[in-house]
Amino acid sequence: MSEALLEVTDLIKHYPVRAGVLRRQVGTVHAVDGVSFALGVGETLGLVGESGCGKSTVARSVLRLVEPTSGQIRLEGEDITHLSKTALRPHRRSMQIVFQDPFASLNPRMTAGDIVGEPLAVHGLATGKALEARVARLFEQVGLRPDQMRNFPHQFSGGQRQRICIARALALEPRLIVCDEPVSALDVSIQAQVINLLIDLQRRHGFSYLFIAHDLAVVAHISHRVAVMYLGRIVEIADKDELFRNPRHPYTQALLASVPIANPLAKKLAPLVDGDVPSPVNPPSGCAFHTRCRFAMERCKTERPALVEAAGGHRVACLLNEGTGRPL
Amino acid sequence: MFAYLVRRLFLMLVTLFGISIVIFFLLRVVPGNIVDILFAAAGYVDPADKANLEKELGIDEPLIVQYWHWISGLLRGDFGYSYVSEKPALQEILPRIPITARLAGLALLFSASIGIPLGVISAVKQGTRLDYALRVVSLSGLSLPSFWLGLLILTASVAMFGQMPIFNPNPQTWLEAFATYAVPAAAVGFRSAALTMRITRSSMLEVLRQDYIRTARAKGASDAAVNYHHALKNAILPVITVIGIEAAFLIGGLIVTETVFNIPGVARFLVEAIRWRDYPIVQNLVMFIAVVVVFANFTVDMLYAVFDPRIRYTD
Amino acid sequence: MAAIDFDVELRRAGAHATGGWRRVLFMAQRHVLGAAGLVIMTVFVLTAIFADFIARYDPLTVDSARALARPSLAHWMGTDSFGRDVFSRIIHGARISLAVGLGSTALGGSIGVIVGLTSGYLSGWVDLVFQRVSDVLQALPLLVLALVMTAALGPSLPNVIIAIAIPLIPTVARVIRANTLALREQPFVEAAKSIGMSEMRIALRHVLPNTLAPLIVLATAQLGSTILTEASLSFLGLGIPEPYPSWGRMLSESAAEYVRTAPWLVIFPGIAISLAVFGANLFGDALRDILDPRQRG
Amino acid sequence: GEPKQGGILRMYHRDSPANASILEGATYSINVPFMGVFNNLVIYDQHIAQNSPDTLRPELAESWSWSGDNKKLTFKLRQGIKWHDGKPFTSADVKCTFDLLMGKSQQKLRQNPRKAWYNEVNDVTPNGDFEVSFDLKRPQPSLLAMLASGYTPIYPCHVSPADMRTHPVGTGPFKFVEFKANESIKLTRNPDYWKKGLPYLDGIEYTIITNRSTAILAFVAGKFDMTFPTHITIPLLKDIKSQAPNAICAVEPTNVSTNIIVNSTSAPFDNIDIRRAMAMALDRKAFVDILFEGQADIGGTMLPPPQGIWGMPKDKLETIPGYGPNVNASREEARKLMQKAGYGPDKHLAVKVSTRNLAEYRDPAVILIDQLKSIYIDGELDVVETANWFPKVARKDYMLGLNLTGNSVDDPDQSFYENYSCGSERNYTNYCNKEIEKLFDVQSQEIDVGKRKQLVWDIDKKLQEDVARPIIFHARAGTCWQPYVKGITIMSNSSYNGFRYEDVWLDK
Amino acid sequence: MADKSDLVLDVKNLKTVFFTNSGLFKAVDDVSFTVKRGETLAIVGESGCGKSVTALSLMRLVPDPPGRIVGGSVTLEGTDLLALDEAKMRAVRGNRISMIFQEPMTSLNPVMRIGDQIVEAVRLHRNLSAKEAGDIAVEMLRLVRIPEPARRAREYPHQLSGGMRQRAMIAMALACRPALLIADEPTTALDVTIQAQILALILDLQKELGTGLVLITHDLGVVAQTAQRVIVMYAGRKVEEASVEALFASPKHPYTRGLMASIPAVPASGVAAPPRLNEIPGTVPSLVRLPKGCAFAPRCPLAIKRCQDEYPPLADWGGGHLAACWRAEEVAEVA
Ligand SMILES: Nc1ncnc2c1ncn2[C@@H]1O[C@H](COP(=O)(O)OP(=O)(O)OP(=O)(O)O)[C@@H](O)[C@H]1O
Ligand SMILES: Nc1ncnc2c1ncn2[C@@H]1O[C@H](COP(=O)(O)OP(=O)(O)OP(=O)(O)O)[C@@H](O)[C@H]1O
Ligand SMILES: [Mg+2]
Ligand SMILES: [Mg+2]
């Protein structure tokens, strides 16, 4: 994990808020507000955070599916932030994404085989019989039957659809796969199938994953390192074990404490944070979390904490304890 | 909001400018001009006379110059003179506008007040006999040529009452005025109502399957409340769009109805003016229609915001 | 709860109608009106194609001896004042009326699709320009355009088709554009981008097929209205010229003079027009239902 | 009963005339509503259907007299007549009117379609306020006929031609009130009309209804007292009769001939054989049967008798090729001519038949095309918009054309010179035959009516044999009015001259 | 078994079918369960196994077409809902039984003010003036801890955040203090902190009002923390029912066991995560073409010949622990 496959620096993405038939801009969503991280070869970086905090936006910016407002994205050392669409096209072979919503990301009017084969066709990697054979292999790899290639997306179950998406992402054998909540809609048994597949593939081919999920257990299972986002910013990033053992940011702590344990005898749920998620259109001043933080101080309302190293490789953005967060 | 209106107004002007160019040059592309026609009707031509007349009317000048005369005149409020009647174009156009406006308004009213409720019913009862029946009736509204429907109405009224609703320029009573417009408006409105009904139906079908309709039912709301209070309000935007398009269309598109019912409205006048190549009338009238269309679109956009709180025009 | 015969319900739901004709029959049963529309349209199209074989008389031959004959075995729909066989004229008229209907819908529709797709997909200044152009087209009254077109180029079949097609363009373009704007944001379009597909290919392979449903509904509705527009143009003397029969002209001219004395001159072309419009719309309605994913279950 | 004073005559008008100036017009759409505003020097008796030299009546002129050499025509004018604006009428007004028509005055008519009528007039000179005389280059007895036409009202000097288009001022029984294009034309009674006690009507209102079905329905429903004159086709007449059995309808020739204009300047119709063949292929009776249910007239250039004064008698007519009773024999001959010209069953001649986009033009053209099939000619209809029709014809940009020619006065001078003399602007076919043209002048100067008729018949026959402009038929049309409308007479050999309406009254 | 009088809901042999173009299938097949006053019953199962349809069937809101309830009974406080006419049913809906739908974002009417939507629910069942109902609405919003409830009541759904919308939905569902509340995956799209808030809220209100709760969820953690009893569904059928403790302690159906085994755990200090998660091999069969016997048999490690031929009956394996498996006894041992 020495060399960085992907390096994201100061990524900012603002969306205009538009309304009306004429799509006039009525405001700005600060979807991603200065995010930096690096991802090594064969590494998995987990990305968690509440819904709407900008995880998907980070994911899509990395692939230049949305144009970042500012910041830099380097893939294998090359700055791809400003490459033209055409210049970018060859790079698409080395990075792929599994979308948050598998059904929506499959064209309802194409067969599963066509969908999975399309990347190969587009890059001219295979045609005719060869293409078909490749697609069949991909199907088998993700645990689908080749005879299902002729089926349309709506004829698959949620988990199968997710696997079609994965097969499509794998077709080009990319070095980086961004997985945006690939398992959120699945029940645990299917979820387990998908996760196992991803881990197997990583072992075999050395893929790197940027893995986004709500389910901390899943993230914990698959990731080497984990980043926690809150309202467009990374508030904490550390090795998995370190993060789960010593969460330093009050939000991370609240997250961990809120995970319901699948054991009726274990302690009952008690919400650790209260209040509502602030809107990314008008983010709170200072530390964005101060509106919900139990430990908020006066200066949290005005001062925005930077992401700083609190311990070996453990970075946190919190003003408590001279910027090292609150140890448990 | 203010900035938005300014922008909107600017775009309207751009559109109107485009239309002025299109209509001006389109008319010039058509062979024959008023002079040709006058001489054709007289069955002879004397080149000198012809040249004189062309000069008198100013149609011998280069097109650009003519265009400039027209547009600069418009900006000064000078609409020119009709070639045929030799009266000021404005004086010819203005009295016809309220006639068409009343007719179109009544037709729209008719179409909305019939089309929307029937559309709702048909959507709610989708797949039932009532739905089939309503759809068939509405389709027949769309499949009758309008001149045919108009003649049918006139013939039937003469045959049954020995009377016919022919246009009366000076209605004495309110009732008479209504009668003058109601029948042609109904003839137009039938088609319009059919269209409105179909749009309402399909839009309602879309909405009726939305989750919040289910929520309303889950609250125990009655069918009427669900259909009209919850669903229709959400389904109304496409309907408004169509009514807006119809409104724009009705201002310039009632040629056949105006002909059959002999209503001295804008559309028939426009056709006559085109036949005579009466450029000042055609150009100004088309500009007027364009203004109406553009404003109809604008009104529709504004209505969107009224009906859907998510839409707010600010800039 | 009423008892349910599962087998009956199964059959009603088409569980046995798995392949080929059975499936077609099943769909026809489910969409009776749509099937009727399809049948009507097919009959008309076939009629138009095989007009020469079906018509029993030359539609153009004038014969003073048999003018204004009532419908009879010899002349199923009677003859007109020129002694021409109305049935044969309607059969041949199908050619013109359908050519106008299909031709102008296809022409206006395809240009509208191209404009709408480009405008919606590329957005930016292309969109702005295209939108203003379609504003302009929309603001020109249809019949003004038709008048100007036919006056400029003469009332021939292609010109009538073009004249009727032009106002269709902004309508279709608007619908397709709105759809494209929505589709452009769909994850599957993004997915196509992410594999490095060119914009053109995305527009054609991913966006276009998904706008097909509203397009078909719009097109069938327009098909009907173009036939009516031709009739209206004929009424104003701007339609397809004599001697070739178009339904619109047959109706509009006879309507003036023969409503009472020879009603068959009015009734039959009227029925032909209404039936065609009706058929197209019924078919469109059913397509709408069939293509509505929520109704497919 | 006795005529009654009062009431407004309600009529519909078939279309919106371009303007109100009769002198500039060339359609009876102007004559019908505006003739009542004016007076002529002389006028055809409004209650005798057939216009003829015998029915000429004085109007603004009390009397007229020819000089001994028949080259000077002097009118004594009525005194004490006032224009509608109160100015007195004098001989100067007559002079002004004819100077306008001859193109001699300062002010010009926008268009002057009947300038050629006065080709033989040297000058019009007033002698004092109430006498005026016309100096002719040569005798022309038909001049009176033209002066009596509804097309020749006297205009006032003091109103410009432009004003006459929008607000005509005359001396006639009715005053102009308003003309709303596409809507209505209104006239009101002239209380100071010089014929005491006239007019009976308080006014006339024309509602412009362009759609014939609507118009007729409105008449049937009693919205109108009278249809637009000669606007009812024969099939529609039946319809009216069945719906309004009390209506009184008259069917009369309109003196409008439907004819074929042949472009003899270029192939293929520069070949006289093909022209003849075409003329011989015509089955005129079929046209008349189909379009008029038999009620129209077959003749030459001049309207056939009995309504027409100058038309050839039947026996003479039938000697012309193509007019004979045996159509098949005639077509057989026509085919031979075609074969001579190189066409036959295997080699058809393709021809475009141009015509205007109006039913009156299109319908006969359809029949024509059908008939031409019998002589190996494949016709295709080419409909032309009004605006382009005349320029196209003038350019000789056509092969065959189907045309309607209206004759405002039933006199050979009007018809021959206009349509057949070399170089005339209305001679669309460019037919030019110097010998015949000499004959035109001969008949024109002939004072004896009987002799003139013989000359005219010979000319007419020759014109038909030359296939200059084959006449197919002379149309008839109907006019209907409610039974209480009295004093209407429909002219039987012209539809331009009978609309003074000063003694029309309503028996209500 | 429970005391009858204490029963809020008694569902017996519920059967709901869908007629679709691809065929007819039983989305809910012969499902029975009960809910007591103040009790929480969780329904879990594979995605697409019929949980939501079951819930909708209770409300009689199955979209028709294509769906229809074809059998069984739903007894709410002694009345069989399926036998009521539509008008009577309307009086029950939103009043005695109400539901929080799976997608709160789309379940609020976008063109109506939040307050009005709650007011409507109240006034439909209580004879109150608009003013009084308005007060109740604001009160309900306060109860679900929406700050500034009076102002929020006048706003439209799009002006609220996702969490607030979800709470507004809850407020609306509880406005008439129903005897039974159905919550269909009320927290799927939310992060765990918000999820915890909302669940706590529902449980509080439930306790306060004595409402019976049917909670549908994928998250077994949530089940463990909130429910008293659980039913497990597979391919339209109930395959297991037990108290939450019994179920987590010893599942009696191989599918349930598979589910339990698949749950990943947040790593606790010092415990190494297993390299692979357990998974149930194979995929859910298509509901249109279900196998003749046990629907789970093709994926079941314990499947025997009998499973393929014969659907196992739902049997009581002690203490009200029901499971539909021939080899229920062995399930726990295999684990
Ligand atoms: N195309 C867009 N236009 C405007 N705003 C957007 C757009 N896409 C996302 N946003 C907004 O940006 C913010 C971040 O969205 P994003 O999808 O990245 O969140 P997320 O962390 O992935 O949430 P979730 O967990 O729900 O998937 C949200 O407030 C969202 O509403
Ligand atoms: N409107 C409908 N039309 C056709 N089939 C439907 C419809 N609604 C649900 N189904 C089908 O019924 C079955 C059960 O659906 P249901 O929504 O109850 O699943 P679920 O258990 O709630 O799944 P999830 O966990 O994904 O919400 C599914 O196979 C689904 O495809
Ligand atoms: Mg996301
Ligand atoms: Mg569900």
TrEMBL record, chain A:
Membrane topology type: Peripheral membrane protein
Entries under PROSITE patterns matching the protein: ABC_TRANSPORTER_1 (PS00211), ABC_TRANSPORTER_2 (PS50893)
Tell me the compartments it is located in.
Cell inner membrane
User: Domain of life, per the record?
Assistant: Bacteria
Which residues does the UniProt record annotate as the domain ABC transporter? 6-256
Question: By its UniProt entry, which Gene3D superfamilies does this protein fall under?
Answer: P-loop containing nucleotide triphosphate hydrolases (3.40.50.300)
Tell me, which GO biological process terms does this entry list?
peptide transport; transmembrane transport
Question: Under the cellular component aspect of Gene Ontology, which terms does the record hold?
Answer: plasma membrane
Q: What is this protein called?
A: Dipeptide ABC transporter ATP-binding protein
What organism is the protein native to? Answer: Bradyrhizobium zhanjiangense
From TrEMBL, chain B:
- InterPro entries, per database record: BPD_transp_1_N (IPR045621), MetI-like (IPR000515), MetI-like_sf (IPR035906)
Classification via CDD domains: TM_PBP2
- Cellular component GO terms held in the UniProt record: plasma membrane
Q: Does the keyword Repeat apply?
A: no
Arranged from A to Z, the UniProt key words for this protein are: Cell membrane, Membrane, Transmembrane, Transmembrane helix, Transport
Keyword Kinase included in the entry's annotation:
no
Please give the start and end residues of each transmembrane region.
Answer: 9-30, 103-124, 136-162, 174-194, 235-256, 285-307
Ranges in a coiled coil: none
Query: What molecular function terms (GO) are annotated for this protein?
Result: dipeptide transmembrane transporter activity
Outline the extent of the ABC transmembrane type-1 domain: 97-304
Which range is the signal sequence, renumbered to this chain?
A: none
Q: Where in the cell is it found?
A: Cell membrane
Name the membrane topology term.
Multi-pass membrane protein
Annotated family = Belongs to the binding-protein-dependent transport system permease family.
Q: What is the protein named?
A: ABC transporter permease
Q: Which organism is it from?
A: Bradyrhizobium zhanjiangense
Automatic annotation (TrEMBL), chain C:
Name-wise, this protein is ABC transporter permease
Q: Which GO terms describe its biological process?
A: peptide transport; protein transport; transmembrane transport
GO CC term (a single one): plasma membrane
Q: Which residues cross the membrane?
A: 32-55, 98-122, 142-169, 207-228, 262-284
Cell compartment(s), UniProt:
Cell membrane
A Pfam short name: BPD_transp_1
In terms of InterPro entries, this protein maps to: BP-dependent_transpt_permease, MetI-like, MetI-like_sf, OppC_N
Please report which protein family the annotation says this sequence is part of: Belongs to the binding-protein-dependent transport system permease family.
Q: Where is the ABC transmembrane type-1 domain?
A: 94-284
Q: Does the keyword Transmembrane apply?
A: yes
TrEMBL record, chain E:
Question: Which keywords label this protein?
Answer: ATP-binding, Cell membrane, Membrane, Nucleotide-binding, Transport
Where can this protein be found? Answer: Cell inner membrane
Q: What cellular component terms from Gene Ontology apply here?
A: plasma membrane
Which Pfam families does this entry report, sorted A to Z? Answer: ABC_tran, oligo_HPY
**Keyword flag Flavoprotein:** no
Q: Name one GO molecular function term.
A: ATP binding
Q: What family does this belong to?
A: Belongs to the ABC transporter superfamily.
What's its job? Involved in beta-(1-->2)glucan export. Transmembrane domains (TMD) form a pore in the inner membrane and the ATP-binding domain (NBD) is responsible for energy generation.
Q: Which PANTHER family match?
A: DIPEPTIDE TRANSPORT ATP-BINDING PROTEIN DPPD (PTHR43297:SF2), OLIGOPEPTIDE TRANSPORT ATP-BINDING PROTEIN APPD (PTHR43297)
UniProt protein name:
ABC transporter ATP-binding protein
Tell me the organism.
Bradyrhizobium zhanjiangense
